[in-house]
């Protein structure tokens, strides 16, 4: 079972969510597990790194809307890695429309981690 994990990068704690090996129902279940973990963190403290799957279903997009809205008080910054250009645009629009502003998309995980730790 894949689980959300906290990693360290340049002395900062980042919650890494790797969705790449999950099918759509697995992605949704993983989001629910991550939601519970994030809710246990202090408000405005979570640096969130999401490694997205190559294909995103409509069900996953719908689940992402609720996930993003729930996380607004907790997430300081969010980085997305691994999506196509179209997917990145759709994910960024979904997240920012739910009230999160400090979110960026990257092609490389190292760049995403470096950006997160400067927030």
Question: What keywords describe this structure?
Answer:
119 residues, 24% strand, globular, 5-stranded mixed β-sheet, single chain, Transcription Regulator spoIIAA, alpha/beta
Architecture in CATH? 2-Layer Sandwich
The CATH homologous superfamily: STAS domain
The average pLDDT score comes to 88
Give the spatial strand order of the biggest sheet: 1-2-3-4-5
CATH class, named Alpha Beta
What overall form do the CA principal axes indicate? globular
Tell me the major beta sheet: 5 strands, mixed
Helix content: 40-55%
CATH topology: Transcription Regulator spoIIAA
Number of domains: 1
Number of separate helices:
4
Radius of gyration, taken over Cα atoms and rounded to an integer in Å: 13 Å
Question: What's the helix-strand series?
Answer: EEHEHEHEH
- Quaternary arrangement of the chains shown? single chain
Structural class based on helices, strands and sheet pairing: alpha/beta
Q: What is the end-to-end distance?
A: 30 Å
Given as residue ranges, the uncertain stretches (5+ residues, pLDDT < 50) are none
Reconstruct the topology from this structure.
Layout: E1 5-9, E2 12-18, H1 24-39, E3 46-51, H2 58-71, E4 75-81, H3 85-96, E5 103-106, H4 109-116
Parallel strand pairs: 2-3, 3-4, 4-5
Antiparallel strand pairs: 1-2
Helix pairs in contact: 1-2, 2-3
